[in-house]
Amino acid sequence: MNELKIGNKTANVPIIQGGMGVGVSLSGLAGAVAKEGGVGIISTAQIGYDDDAFEYDQAGCNLAAIKKHIRKAKEIAGGNGLVGVNIMVALKHYKEHVKAAVAAGADVIISGAGLPIDLPALVDKACQTKIAPIVSSKRAAQLILKMWSHKYDRTADFIVIEGPKAGGHLGFSNEQLNNTASLDFDNEITNIIECKKEYEDKYSKKIPVIVAGGIFDKQDIIHAIKLGADGVQIASRFVATKECDASPAYKQAYINARQEDVQIIQSPVGMPGRALRNAFIKQLDNSRIPISKCYNCLEKCNPAKVPYCITKALINAVKGDVDNGLIFCGANVGRINEITTVHSLMKELTE
C-alpha cells in the first residue's frame, strides 16, 4: 500500500485509527498505531474523565489531558507515524480543545459531529497541525470547502468521508441508517472526490481523501483505494486490542456482540448513533434516565430535556460498567471475535 502524505507529513501506512470517546482511544492506542506507521487519533471528548479533579473541573482536566496524552502518544510512537486528535464540533469547549491540541503539537485535527466551519480560524496557516473535516455527503463537503475558501482563503489538508456503517455519532437520518443496503455510498464517495478537485487546483495542493465507516479488512481497504481514496479510517477493530485504553469489560462487550445486538439510538448531541443494545439502552426504551449532575460536555445540551447524560453513560462503559453505560460501535462489531494487538492487526490489514 502507498504511504499517506498529508502536506509535508507522511504516515507509512494509509490507516487512520478513528477517534473514540470517552477514553476509548487515548495515548495508549494512538501511540501504538503511530508506532506501526499509521495515524493514531486521540478523542478529546471528556478526555480528563479519570482525573481526580474531574467532578468539579471538567474543562481544566480536559485541557490538561489533551496535552498529556498527545505527549505520551508521541513518546510511544518513537518518531513513527502521526499522532492527532478528534474534536467534536458539538463540544462546549471546542475552541479551547483545538487550541490545546495545536499547542501540544498534534500532527492532525479531525473534526465532525457538526460542521467545523470555523476550524481554520483556530489553526494558523503556518502551523504544522493539519486539519480535516468529517463529511458524509457531497453537499456537506462542498459547503465546508466553499466556506473555508471564502472565509479563510484556505482549504482542507485532507477530508474524512464517514459512511453509514460507522460507529458513534452519524451524519445520516434514522431511515438511512436502518436501511444501509439501499444507500449507494460508493457513488457518494466518488462524488466527494470529484468535488474537491476544484480546490486542489485553486490552492495547488493535494487533498487526500480518507474513507471511514465499516472498513473491516484488507479487501475493504483495497476497495476504498480503488474508488479513489488515499487511505481509510478504522475504529471498531482497534477496540479489541490489548493497547486500547478502554477497560477489559468494554473490549469483551465487543467480542460478545452479535449482529443483532447493534442498534441505532438517539444521542443527546442531536444526531443518531450506533451502539450495542444493552441494559442501559433497554431502560431508555421505557423512560428517561434523570440527570443529577451536568458535566458540561455539549454546547447545546439541556440536562432537563435530554433522555440521559451522555458523559456519565460513556464513562460508565469505558470504566467497565457495560450494563449501565453507552457502548458505541460500528456496524461490523459482530465480526470481531478475539483480542489481538495493534501490531498484529496492522499487519493483517496491510500484508
Rg, nearest Å: 19 Å
> What do the pLDDT scores average to?
95
The main pleated sheet reads as: 8 strands, parallel
Regions with little confidence, pLDDT below 50 for 5+ residues: none
Description:
With 351 residues, the chain is α/β, with parallel strands linked by helices. It is built from 14 helices and 13 strands. The radius of gyration is 19 Å and the shape is globular. The mean pLDDT is 95.
Output the keywords.
single chain, 351 residues, alpha/beta, 3-stranded antiparallel β-sheet, 14 helices, 13 strands, 37% helix, globular
Write a concise synopsis of the structure shown.
The chain is of the alpha/beta class and 351 residues long. It is built from 14 helices and 13 strands.
Outline the fold blueprint.
Elements (H helix, E strand, L loop, with lengths): L3 E3 L2 E3 L3 E3 L9 H9 L3 E5 L14 H20 L4 E5 L7 H10 L4 E4 L7 H4 L7 E6 L2 H15 L6 E4 L5 E2 L4 H4 L7 H11 L1 H7 L5 E4 L5 H9 L4 E4 L1 H4 L8 H9 L5 E5 L5 E5 L2 H8 L23 H10 L22 H9 L1
Parallel strand pairs: 3-11, 4-5, 5-6, 6-7, 7-8, 8-10, 10-11
Antiparallel strand pairs: 1-2, 9-13, 12-13
